[in-house]
Amino acid sequence: MAVDKIAPNDPRIERKQAEVRGKTYSYLYGKPEGTPKGTVVLIHGFPDISLGWRYQIPFFLSQGYQVVAPDCLGYGQTASPEKLEEFSLKSMADDVKALSEHVAGPGEQIILGGHDWGGALVWRVALWHPSLIKGVFSVCTPYNSPTTYWFDLADLIAAGKFHNFKYQLQLRGPDVEAKVKTPEDIRQFLQGIYGGRGPNGELVFTTEQGVVFENLGKMGPTPLLSEDEIAYYAEQFSHSGLRGPLNWYRTRKINYEEELPLAEKAEKEGAAIKIQPASLFILANKDAALPASMAAGMDQHFVDLTRGEVTATHWALWETPEEVNKQIKEWLDTKVNKPTANL
């Protein structure tokens, strides 16, 4: 049976805006029948938009939650600030907190979910604002703890580490932003990164090389999005282009500096920094950018971590939505909303 999903301009959701710490955030909002039993906030990754959660929004509505899925900073109809510091994980974690309080109300806890860069961000929200969160989950993206030492990504790759992140060297530079600008180029880029191929199997993106510019214009349809969906995606990305989304790759040093006090405190105390809320990590075991090896050892950084796994590539939310939703529901039922004994 096909998994229910929202469509662009779906009547079950509204497009709303909120002023968040001096920036306009655009978000999809869905309300269940009756009084919501809680608020779920869903944070997408790169290159994606709020509609990336199209298979999960109806699921959460069916479970009685109101749902907030923002276009993240730099994406879609949300602001794309000039200052790079606005794109740090700490700054955007503060944005998520402010947006959540705008919708749910001050002092109300949320369930927070993320995918790709959204996964990296939700772990940081849990780190900086644990009291905001009733439960936090990430699909594909493992947790990496703040550290006291700084290495540039280029140096790590040159030393033979993190070859799965080699593409990020290109994305943080000027070329992709400069060369993928027209609506048609953006659509071709998206079709290729979402699994489309050229007539001879050409790829538009690899983790080793990044964007293969000469293959823009050759990409056939993506198997993961309908024609209406890919047209909507291309239109949304054309609002601000790729500068904002790519800025997420340009803040590694800023993130390190902002998180250094946390790492130094943990080192001084001789104890790992722990994510306090109930947590779920769902591994996509065919994800070339985020392989299983990156999630090894992360358990020590959690008070209560549940692990799940799906047989999917990086686009697990769309390839295996039924299994993703099932694992989230099981975690919600057993860890987040577990009944407490009457004492």
Automatic annotation (TrEMBL):
Residues 39-171 form the AB hydrolase-1 domain. One of its GO terms (molecular function) is hydrolase activity. Keywords: Hydrolase. InterPro entries: AB_hydrolase_1 (IPR000073), AB_hydrolase_fold (IPR029058), Epox_hydrolase-like (IPR000639). Pfam families: Abhydrolase_1. Belongs to the AB hydrolase superfamily. Epoxide hydrolase family. This is AB hydrolase-1 domain-containing protein. It comes from Colletotrichum noveboracense.
